[in-house]
Each structure stands twice: as C-alpha cells, then as structure tokens.
Amino acid sequence: xxxxxxxxxxxxxxxxxxxxxxxxxxxxxxxxxxxxxxxxxxxxxxxxxxxxxxxxxxxxxxxxxxxxxxxxxxxxxxxxxxxxxxxxxxxxxxxxxxxxxxxxxxxxxxxxxxxxxxxxxxxxxxxxxxxxxxxxx
Length: 137
Known about the structure:
The protein has a single domain (about 5-130), classed as Serine Threonine Protein Phosphatase 5, Tetratricopeptide repeat (Alpha Horseshoe), CATH 1.25.40. About 75% of the residues lie in helices and about 0% in strands. The protein has six helices and no strands. The longest helix is centred in the N-terminal third of the chain and has 27 residues, at about 5-30.
C-alpha cells in the first residue's frame, strides 16, 4: 500500500470513529439512550472543559432543536461556564466579560427567563454602562 493510500485509510477510520461517536451522542441525548448526559459530556463538565462540552451540545442541538433534553443540557453548560467566567475566573475583565455576555445572551435565546442568565447579563451590561464603555457584541 502506498503512503497516500495508508493516509487515506487512516483518515477514513478516524472519520468513521468520529461519525459513530456522534451517532452515539445523538442517540443518547435524543432520548433513545439514557436520559442523562453521556459520560463523555459529564466528564468534560466535571473537568470544567466548558468550551468542548458546549461545542458538542451546540452541534447536537443544531440537528435536533426540538429536543428539550438537549436544550436543557446546553443551557446548563452555558450558564455554568458564563458564571465561572463572571464570578470566578482570573482572566482580565476585557477577556472574561465579553465571552460571558455572549454565553448569557445565547442562553436567553434558548430560555428567555433563565434567572442566572438574566442576572449575569444585567450585571455585565451595568458594568459596561457604568464605565461608559461600548457594549460587547
């Protein structure tokens, strides 16, 4: 087998594994599996790897927007990350607040009355207004 053929076969195997993993995630989160988030997602959240968890959830939610379980998991992960940034992060304000504000806004698109998102969004906006700074997008 040539080097190019070997590389193609490796890519195919990786792509197949990734597709199977996504299929398993979709089955689990769509209700065909357990109702709780899969172990991989729980591990990411426990390790505070929020960006990876949210990326997985956003991808799954994009293909099944009618799933209340997916929406609930996405809202919970996004609020957890936004709260971590807002209240606990050692990042400078110019890095953490815009990111947290985007997360709170996304949560409010999914759940307009989510209390933590309303409170966090209002807090960050009031900080920017009190400093006379333009609001991050």
